[in-house]
Amino acid sequence: MITFYLKKTISFFIEPFGIVFLLFFLGLIFLYLKQQQKSKIFLSLSFIFLTLFSYPPFANFLVKNLENQYSKYTPTNGIKYIHVLGSGHNTDPLQPISSHLSCSGTKRVLEGVILQKQIRNSILIFTGYAGYTNIPNATMNKQLALSLGVDKKNILTSIKPKDTKEEALFLKTLLKPDEKFILVTSATHMPRAMKIFTSLGLNPVPAPTAFYKQDIKTFFTPPKIYYFYLSQIAMHEYIGSCWEELKKW
């Protein structure tokens, strides 16, 4: 548990928002310490990184490099399990089930449901812990799938996994050796997820969804906060992939 939260804390400061926040904070400290030169450097760097990560062509470049690695999945019979990875959610009772999951989480569940209905006798697997709520993400995903018409006998859940590796470890206890399964997750997350699952000896067939890449034809476009968000998503995956490589050493 301590390692999990330590990893989250460290990743915050090396992702776009954390980088900009830290540089700006250091700039303010040096400003109050009357060290003008150092303050100018850190404040300028925070502005440069904020602009860069918010610049549409740059953010789109980061996203496309991840999403272009796997294309959409064409359903075929013969694969029994469809594993939909967890994502964020809320439990506000004033909101409908369609609003409880994050945008990427909703698309993951929707893709899983579509595949389950197209592949005969297939079973949906939802994994994910409660996070900061009192209801596990796997349970929320199951509720949405049930509301979309999936029979409860075709759904399995595990409410313990806190990250992708724990999700993979759970699945390994369920499948036969070398058994193929469909892996559903966001297109940006798919490259890292595939590395984790295959490193544990699993045999996933990628079914990416929740694509963010766009066809941007001009470089003359102003920074936008939405693209900072995309940079945040992409850099989270790049850092996660680097962490997986470091752990091998």
Describe, in short, the structure shown.
With 249 residues, the chain is an alpha/beta fold.
Describe, in plain words, how this protein is organized in 3D.
The structure is a single chain. The model has no long low-confidence stretch (mean pLDDT 93). The chain has a 5-stranded parallel beta sheet with strand order 3-2-1-4-5, with helices on both faces. It starts with a helix and ends with a helix. The protein has helices spanning 2-14, 16-32, 36-54, 56-67, 97-100, 103-118, 137-147, 164-174, 190-199, 225-248, and strands spanning 81-84, 123-127, 155-158, 180-186, 203-209. The chain is of the alpha/beta class and 249 residues long. The relative contact order is 0.16. It has 10 helices and 5 strands.
Regarding quaternary structure, how should these chains be classified? single chain
CATH superfamily of the largest domain: HUPs
CATH domain fold name of the largest domain: Rossmann fold
The level of helicity is 55-70%
Mean pLDDT: 93
Distance between the termini: 22 Å
Q: What's the Cα radius of gyration? A: 20 Å
Strand-pairing-aware structural class: alpha/beta
CA-based shape = elongated
- Side by side, the strands of the main sheet go 3-2-1-4-5
Strand and helix map with partners:
Elements: H1 2-14, H2 16-32, H3 36-54, H4 56-67, E1 81-84, H5 97-100, H6 103-118, E2 123-127, H7 137-147, E3 155-158, H8 164-174, E4 180-186, H9 190-199, E5 203-209, H10 225-248
Parallel strand pairs: 1-2, 1-4, 2-3, 4-5
Helix pairs in contact: 1-2, 2-3, 3-10, 4-10, 6-7, 9-10
